[in-house]
# Entry
Amino acid sequence: MRRMLALLLGCALAVGFAGAGEYKIALMVKDSTTPFWRYVVTGAQDVAKELGCQVIEYAPLQTQNLEEQVRQVEDAVQKRIDAICIAPIDSQGIIPAIEKANAAGIPVITTNSKSAGGDIKTFIGVDNYEAAKTLAKYMMDKLGGKGNLVIIEGNPAGQTSQDRVRGFTEVIKEHPGVNLLVSQPGMFQRAEAMNIMENIIQGNPDINAVMALNDEMALGALQAINDAGLKGVMVTGFDGAKEGLEAILAGNLYASMNQAPFDQGGVAVRAAVDVLNGKRIEAWIKVGGQVCDESNAAELLKSFDRK
# Structure
């Protein structure tokens, strides 16, 4: 009898682990066009292929649209997706949708940005506050502790943007010789940042540095600076995306922050499978976090050469 029970238990376990190859995991990013999110999706798909599960991508048609993302979570719940990996657009606004997934017994992993509530199994990403402080200290050193500075924020409703702005401004306040001219949201979009920068330059042409909360906005700000004929303005991004690293090597962007986008997607999927298989995981799995500049951009760029 005991042997029969052991055999049955062994078969049940075997079926459970075989089912891992059939897991359907929703990956919810903030838009469908920005290169950074394409890298996150690629990383997720690579790991899904390795593990034999399926990644279903959800992205709002309208960039940074909370309402769309909420509907997408509800759709995933209705379709009984096995797990949800999500980069919340609005850290507070996404809570009710996450709670619906929780009520349906669907594990939720956050990546890139944290949620302010709901049952979250783990967060995958950099410590945005500490990373922002690290990058700001780097820039204060390069500025020699003085100069006129502009911050181009992301989406004010997102924890990602809030943490980065807080990190930047706390370090800036420690340097009385640095004058923060403007801190304005660019919604993580290149065109929006370019327009903002054009308006800032009209009223404040004496600018020494611009710190943007992602590489896309940094590149948009850089375009406006070049169009205005300004020289010697140090522009930094925050992503370590391919386009940002290439701009650093070309001598256009000054620096960025490595967010390890492939890992944000890939590690999130791996964590989701671990949770579904009953494994214990850490509450926060950190990836990236290094300043990207001319000293390491070429090496970091190699990670984008994916077969």
Summary: Residues 242 and 301 are 6 Å apart (CA to CA).
